[in-house]
């Protein structure tokens, strides 16, 4: 990531951090209690994940949704393609799980157009050279207003002023027009209530509401997002919002438990009212079962991105430190299980300073630096480490010092 993008990213981070610190100071007691509650919720969920998976499958089916369990990303891609292969265009909302499986590139290779409905994602989509998501809630946080206006001007063939409302209006009009041609919407979910068979999604733009109303709504969600109840799920997303944006609650919180239906005619249940005719949930494993056995703490993450805002390495290197949409040290840890040790190394395993700031800033106190240390040990044992590492280790052995 070049200097201009890093400067824009840091400015965005400073705004988020200022808002968050003020909120944490003003409502310290309430938020501290919420943190304690969510940590217990997540610890229970990860500790009972296999049971929650089976419960969720059964509840989804009872609620009239379809369920697919995807052991890995290729299974998820193949299943999605079976569902949408006859569609020329589909709508998508922001989702790390969808990005994780490489859906955009896969469908692009099949000639299917994807309309990114999140403004940040759409901006980056229109200029592949700008790719490099910089924050879970701000995919275009590394682009300043001048650059975004240039991207819009080039794409739409008109001069777009570097002014927020002008940029918003032209992107919004384009997205709304393209949405009319979409029969399928693909989203992720922020949290999943197993016992209720409910998907909880938060957003500020309203785009998930639009995408989920298409005839077919496909939800790709990692099994690590499972919790017991809707009440637990709402607690998780409230804490995520506080640490991600510095705001108390998002503009929208969608809870989806079934396809569209009504019982307003003599209580006769009829499907297919205004929303989706089909809701298909793809529960994505993709290495999470392995992480559960070896490093389950990395699955506690609620996806707020607070860790990367404070990370000294990420603030210098940007999205080069992380794996796809999973940014920073925690993303590197997860990449080891999603892919392999080599990808984990390439994602920045040995860039981490092990300072522990990520843990201090994490709302559930994930000890990412300790997980990084363990993975480094495994990496060295398997022969995947920086060339300089061997020389340094030899100096320590012979001289008692790396210098």
UniProtKB/TrEMBL annotation:
Short name of one Pfam family: LUD_dom
GO biological process, one term: lactate metabolic process
Cross-referenced Gene3D superfamilies: Alpha-helical ferredoxin, NagB/RpiA/CoA transferase-like
Ranges of residues in domain 4Fe-4S ferredoxin-type: 290-321, 341-374
Domain of life per record: Archaea
InterPro entries: 4Fe4S_Fe-S-bd, 4Fe4S_Fe_S_CS, FTHF_cligase-like_sf, Helical_ferredxn, LUD_dom, LutB/LldF, NagB/RpiA_transferase-like
Biased composition (Basic and acidic residues): 386-397
Swiss-Prot/TrEMBL keywords: 4Fe-4S, Coiled coil, Electron transport, Iron, Iron-sulfur, Metal-binding, Repeat, Transport
Gene Ontology molecular function terms on file: 4 iron, 4 sulfur cluster binding; oxidoreductase activity
The keyword Transport is assigned to this record: yes
Stretches assigned to coiled coil: 17-44
SUPFAM superfamilies assigned: alpha-helical ferredoxin, NagB/RpiA/CoA transferase-like
UniProt keyword Cell cycle, yes or no: no
Positions of the UniProt region annotated as Disordered: 383-403
Protein name in UniProt: LUD domain-containing protein
Source taxonomy: Archaea, Methanobacteriati, Methanobacteriota, Methanomada group, Methanobacteria
